[in-house]
Design brief:
The protein is an alpha+beta fold and about 190 residues long. The strands form two sheets. The chain has a three-stranded mixed β-sheet, with no helix packed on it. A two-stranded antiparallel ribbon has the order 1-2.
Length: about 190
Amino acid sequence: STAVCPKTGARVGKGEGFAELEWGILSQQGNLDASKVLVVTTVHDSQVFDGGVEEPWKSLMEQQEKDGVDDDGTNSQTPFGSLTQHDVPVDIIVTPTQIILVPDETKLPKPSGVYWDLLSPQKLAQIRVLQELKKRTEENLGESLPSGPDEVLPPTASRNRKGRGGGGRGGRGRGRGGGRGRSSGRGRRNS
């Protein structure tokens, strides 16, 4: 989380919505009961805002606005907006100095399922599990599900199969002979 509200559990993430998508997928598949699963976040004390639902957005957006506004009046650097129906509030906030339990009586409701009318065709095209879930849901319902508005997605890192690193097969991780404290002999000349 980037900012959280201890009164409502409202949270600002990094603006891509992947946490919400994972929540939606798991709840739609029946693998997560939104009413029973606790959502916990870790943040610095300075990332906790007491001003209610919109305070984290307001403070952060004001700072972003000082950093520059695009020609059309929008701020392309601001991934925040008002809370939407798919935003997942937190139940517990952990900081270096405290553990905050968000009160049930003021906590925002948690969403359940994927909100297809908010999911852009561009994001759907990038996430295979969502494509399969949408197709299966449409087959079960016997009708097409709506799509959200178009969006321009931020660039992603190029991913190819060769030289991925990270320890997978063919990578440069701790595979055979590449573990910590062992020399694979590459690039060394024994004289």
